[in-house]
Write a structure and sequence with these properties.
A: alpha+beta, Ubiquitin-like (UB roll), Gyrase A, domain 2, 26% strand, elongated, disordered N terminus, B: alpha+beta, Folate-binding fold, four-stranded antiparallel sheet, 2 helices
């Protein structure tokens, strides 16, 4: 079996002479071969160089046709990397793709990206160029970068962690750079329902769809590739029912397309399989187009609810693990066959094959017949079956059964492979070098069970084939074809048809199981292997398991030696299977190496968890329509547009946007707020309070319900009067507050905080429905029914009095905390005399549709009094001057009424209300609870920072004991100094004491006092 | 996304229409003032944290608005039953417990 082309039998590699060196790049495209044999030429660029491919090519196919295997540098070692596969499992060939107009995407798999005229791709993780990469020094330092290197090295000094080590590692390792421009594309989403969802349109999936659809079931068939067919596209000589594979495929797709109950989606990946047969599909719509139609979405996320699911995802070919198995030109044998038969591309001129499986022999034969020299097939197995040896002999291919591959060489592309015989004891003998420009490998096939695993479906280990197979399903789901370990087209068709028919029946439709006669398919026998035997010291072998994360077989063994036992821990320590490909080509190899090292059987070690998405998915697909203005609802009041016209500055308050202040020309916030504050204290201001939550509580038991919900007593509150209401949680802590008006004996107008409205209504509904269903009460949210206009200031009455009908506003007749129904500006109103400023004030409630008109009328009427619109910032200052709290700012869910100085609001005679029992817990009476106090800084010009911590002493050892924090702090225009509210441990007992507030500029001293800074006797309200 | 059957609407609807509302069958004492400190603490804070079948409250908040009870397996996330507030739990926990 000696062969003149075997160039060396010693251990020292010799370079191939110029005469035998393959002529790269010429004649690799086989005329007349491939699905796109007659397609138009397409020009694209790779790293700036223009290359001509064919329409229908993937980027990988077009590069291989041009003789290019080197497409990137690896994650950790910056090793040159080529194209490993022909599908979405590709770990190596990740490139940046630029589709123009800012459409840049990093880490696109060259094996799935479709080229078009003007397409641009670039290699990643290299500098200054792909062929000369400085980072490749890491490859020589590889002993430093073994498993867990980041836990072991770079420990000292600590100050280097953030400044030196992390930037160094981040700079050296990695994949592509994120895009710098805003994504110009749009993304769509839709829901769909069907009887049967079939994932994968290979032989099994097509048969399942046919079987399911013929009885009328509504079927969706999806495939991630540009065209349906799966492996049928790569093995065209097979015949099905007397027709060639491609003819049968075309006929079948035509049949399915003609059925109104069938939807076939190409370029559509089932990314996740969730509860109750809810499957997410990502459909790629425009990435393959040279001209994107105006407004066309780039991708569409389908959310499918299927009665039955058939998973026909096929199997993924396993690489073999041996030293130098990552060199460009080393690729999966099945991929080489796909490139030849589907795209008409020979992956090299001189291809050596190393395999543990019959399928790679077929690849070798196809390539040999297409003109590639195949000097040698190395099979791991001592004996191979069938007529493989005879076929090889007839094609002039040398064979070595019971052999191994122990090394490769070639700087940027494999140029030779070291081949050794293996004796009966499994020991590798002496090696010889064989020249090649491609090395095709096959370690057998791994059923693709990612989606099945998403649902928690159990996997069972098949000892004979050394693969995990689907076990008990948790959903209405069947696996079919190679995904169940039934390899081969005949098996896939039969299994798919049976699964599709059974699923249709379970979905309530009649079904027939079509039968298929398959001829001419190759054998699918093989063995499973760990890393290949070698005659060299394995401790130095760069035998890659996970290509994308640069994990070596020795890394996994090291992890086991260092004590890792759980496969989940080994995975995280070595990062095996943690790259963007989720270990599609590496998990099983890694598991078997780990199992051997642990001395346990593979099933007892177990597989790591697969998680959605199946392949990397754009954020755009998940976001869908929910971008920009549609990202989140912005709630606007009826008066919002008026404020916008006057240049109001807004702030978000829950989902609302609220006018924060109304700057005049030349004013900053401080100046505007100071002016607005002065206007309210001296004249009158106008404030949009429409965002206040409002709940109408009606019914014979309304007062009883109010008594049980709120701390206050409501029985004696007369209709026409209001009361400040305090709402606790059952734990006794303040949840919400607001002014509540009794409109009638059986009717309350409740207001809540802006952010708390929905929460309060939910709490009320909860108690009403589940604790007190006997109460006859109705709760209705009226937040958006009422526009609320607060008119505040000494001149407030004078402004609105002329506009009001049916309510006597005289002080004696309509005192503070009165409410009445009447008319204002000719429209119905609920008029409250309430104040959140400490001034004479009214809150005018009118139906929302009149809100702006009434606002404008009041504003017009107020001109004579110098009325000023003010925003939330001024509102905050004015209420803080009075010590009125804002729930959620001055409270944080741990303050009791007593802590907040609101114990006066508790109806002590009431037997029960929500939270009452908790107020009696001993913890609620500890003297060192944090209590709300006022703070006055010793320097009146210092406005403390909200959230700043408070300490008892100016100086002391660090860490200091923090005794509280500032909750509110403002410049008080009325007092001509700063004010602050704070919660301080034991604050009530610290009155008059000095505390300290460390801030970035200095430690500020402040005096503890009461919370009412202005008019504590409320004389200004009694007018 | 789960499908949840609202016992009031008697329809299986997507999870986004519902809100979780904590463990079920924890009645508020009729007279909280008669409850001791430890028992009240337990009522407020101590929950079962079950692995397996769990009785819990949901609200069809973006639907009929009603609170109802459900039995859900916290391991598989599958609902074993949903039933109206106030109704007895349709699953015999003593028996289920023996089977698990």
């Amino acid at each position: 079996m000696s062969d003149a082309r075997v160039i060396d039998t010693g251990d020292t590699p010799a370079r191939p002479s110029a005469a035998t060196a393959p002529a790269i790049g010429r004649g690799l495209r086989v005329p007349g071969r491939g699905r796109n044999a007659a397609a138009a030429p397409v020009r694209f660029t790779f790293d700036g160089r223009t290359i001509t491919g064919r329409a229908g090519d993937t980027l990988a196919a077009a590069l291989l046709a041009d003789g290019i295997h080197l497409v990137g540098r690896s994650f950790k070692y910056h090793r040159p990397r080529g194209i490993l596969s022909a599908g979405s499992e590709e770990p190596n060939a990740l490139v940046g793709t630029d589709r123009g107009d800012g459409r840049y995407e990093p880490n696109t798999r060259a094996t799935t990206a479709e080229i078009f005229e003007g397409f641009r791709a670039s290699s990643q993780n290299r500098w200054p160029s792909l062929r000369h990469d400085v980072g490749a020094v890491n490859d020589s330092l590889y002993m430093l970068f073994s498993a867990g290197f980041y836990y072991k090295t770079f420990m000292w000094p600590k100050s280097f962690w953030n400044t030196v080590y992390e930037p160094l590692i981040r700079g050296a390792a990695g994949l592509g750079a994120p895009p710098t421009e805003r994504d110009p594309d749009s993304y769509a989403a839709r829901h769909a329902h069907c009887d049967l969802l079939v994932v994968g349109a290979g032989a099994a999936g097509l048969a399942a769809a046919l079987a399911g659809a013929r009885g009328g079931a509504k079927v969706i068939l999806v495939d991630e590739q540009a065209e349906a067919g799966g492996w049928l596209l790569s093995e065209p000589e097979v015949t099905i029912d007397g027709r060639t594979a491609w003819t049968w495929l075309a006929d079948t797709l035509r049949t399915l397309a003609a059925m109104p109950n069938v939807t076939v989606l190409n370029r559509t990946t089932a990314i996740g399989y969730y509860h109750q047969n809810f499957v997410g599909l990502c459909q790629r719509l425009t990435d393959h187009l040279a001209q994107v139609p105006e407004g066309a979405p780039r991708e569409r996320l389908w959310k499918v609810r299927a009665k039955q699911v058939v998973l026909a995802q096929g199997a993924i070919e396993k690489p073999l693990v041996f030293a130098g198995n990552d060199r460009p030109g080393v690729m999966l044998a099945g991929a080489a066959r796909t490139y030849l038969n589907r795209y008409g591309v020979r992956v090299g001129d001189r291809a050596v094959v190393v395999t543990a499986h019959d399928a790679a022999w077929a690849a070798a034969f196809d390539l040999a017949r297409a003109g590639t020299t195949v000097p040698l097939i190395v099979d791991i197995r001592p004996v191979v079956g069938g007529d493989l040896l005879a076929q090889a002999r007839s094609l002039g291919i040398e064979t070595l059964c019971g052999g191994t591959v122990t090394d490769t060489r070639g700087r940027l592309r494999v140029s030779a492979v070291r081949v050794n015989p293996v004796d009966a004891a499994g020991r590798a003998g002496g090696g010889r070098w064989v020249a090649c420009d491609a090395l095709l490998m096959s370690g057998g096939w791994t059923p693709s069970l990612h989606l099945f695993s998403h649902t928690g479906g159990k996997l069972v280990w098949d000892e004979a084939d050394q693969v995990f197979l689907p076990g008990r399903a948790t959903e209405a789901c069947r696996c079919a074809g190679a995904g169940t370990g039934r390899f081969g087209l005949a098996a896939a068709l039969a299994d798919g048809a049976a699964a599709g028919a059974a699923a249709a029946v379970d979905a309530g439709h009649p079904a027939e199981t079509p039968a298929f006669a398959v001829q001419g398919e190759g054998s699918m026998a093989g063995t499973a292997c760990r890393d290949l035997p070698t005659d060299r010291n394995g401790a130095f072998a760069k035998a890659f398991v996970d290509f994308q994360n640069d994990v070596l077989a020795k890394d996994i063994r090291l992890a086991v030696r260092e004590g890792f036992r759980s496969v989940e821990h080994i995975k995280r320590y070595t990062t095996n299977g943690m790259a963007t490909d989720q270990g599609k080509t590496s998990n099983i190899n890694g598991l078997q190496i780990a199992a051997d090292a642990l001395g346990r059987a593979a099933p007892s070690v177990g597989l790591t968890t697969f998680r959605p998405p199946y392949t990397p998915t754009t954020f755009g697909a998940f976001a869908g329509y929910n971008r920009g203005r549609l990202f989140e609802v912005t709630r606007r009041t009826p008066i919002d547009a008026w404020a916008a016209e006057r240049g109001a500055v807004y702030e978000p308050v829950s989902l609302w946007r609220r006018a924060r202040y109304f700057p005049q020309p030349g004013e900053d916030m401080h100046a505007a707020v100071a002016r607005e504050c002065r206007a309210v204290r001296a004249g009158v201001g106008l404030f949009d309070a429409s965002t206040l939550g409002k709940i109408e509580i009606v019914g014979p038991d309304a007062a009883t319900f109010m008594n049980r919900m709120y701390t206050n007593a409501w029985t004696k509150l007369e209709p026409g009067r209001c009361r400040y209401g305090l709402l606790l949680g059952e734990d006794g802590f303040i949840r919400d507050d607001g002014v509540i008006g009794r409109m009638a004996p059986d009717r309350f107008h409740v207001t809540t905080t802006t952010g708390g409205a929905a929460r309060v209504l939910t709490t009320m509904e909860d108690y009403l429905q589940t604790e007190w269903p006997d109460l006859n009460v109705w709760l209705t949210s009226t937040t958006e029914q009422w526009a609320v206009i607060a008119v505040q200031g000494p001149s407030a009455r004078a402004v609105i009095e002329p506009l009001v009908e049916g309510i006597d506003l005289a002080p004696g007749r309509f005192p503070h905390m009165a409410v009445a129904e009447g008319r204002i500006c000719g429209v119905p109103t609920r008029l409250f005399r309430v104040s959140f400023t400490g001034e004479l004030g009214f809150e005018v409630n009118v139906p929302s549709r009149y809100g702006r008109a009434v606002w404008e009328a009041i504003h017009e009427a107020g001109r004579a009094h110098g009325i000023v619109p003010y925003g939330t910032e001024t509102m905050h200052v004015l209420r803080a001057e009075k010590g009125y709290i804002i729930v959620g700012q001055d409270t944080d869910g741990t303050l009791t009424p007593a802590d907040a100085g609101l114990d006066w609001a508790i109806g002590k005679a009431k037997p029960d209300f929500v939270g009452k029992r908790s107020l009696a817990r001993p913890d609620m009476h500890r003297p060192d609870r944090k209590q709300l106090v006022g703070l006055l800084t010793q320097d009146p010009n210092v406005v403390l920072e909200e959230g700043a911590q408070i300490v008892a002493e100016r100086d002391g050892p660090i860490p200091r004991t923090m005794i509280g924090h500032v909750t509110s702090a403002y410049w008080s225009e009325a007092l001509g100094r700063s004010i602050a509210l704070a919660v301080v441990a034991g604050g009530k007992s610290l009155q008059g004491r000095t505390v300290y507030v460390p801030m970035p500029d200095a430690v500020h001293a402040a005096t503890v006092g009461g919370t009412a800074f202005l008019d504590p006797e409320n004389t200004r309200l009694a007018v | 996304m789960l499908l949840i059957t609202c016992p009031y609407c008697r329809e299986a609807r997507p999870e986004v229409e519902f809100a979780y509302a904590g463990e079920a069958h924890i009645a508020r004492p009729a007279d909280p003032s008669a409850v001791g400190d430890a028992a009240w603490r337990d009522h407020l804070y101590i929950r079962s944290n079950t692995r397996g079948l769990h009785r819990e409250r949901w609200r069809h908040v973006n639907g009929c608005g009603r609170f109802f009870n459900a039995v859900r397996d916290t391991v598989t996330d599958k609902f074993a039953a949903t039933y109206k507030a106030g109704a007895p739990c349709p699953i015999d926990f003593a028996r289920e417990g023996a089977e698990r």
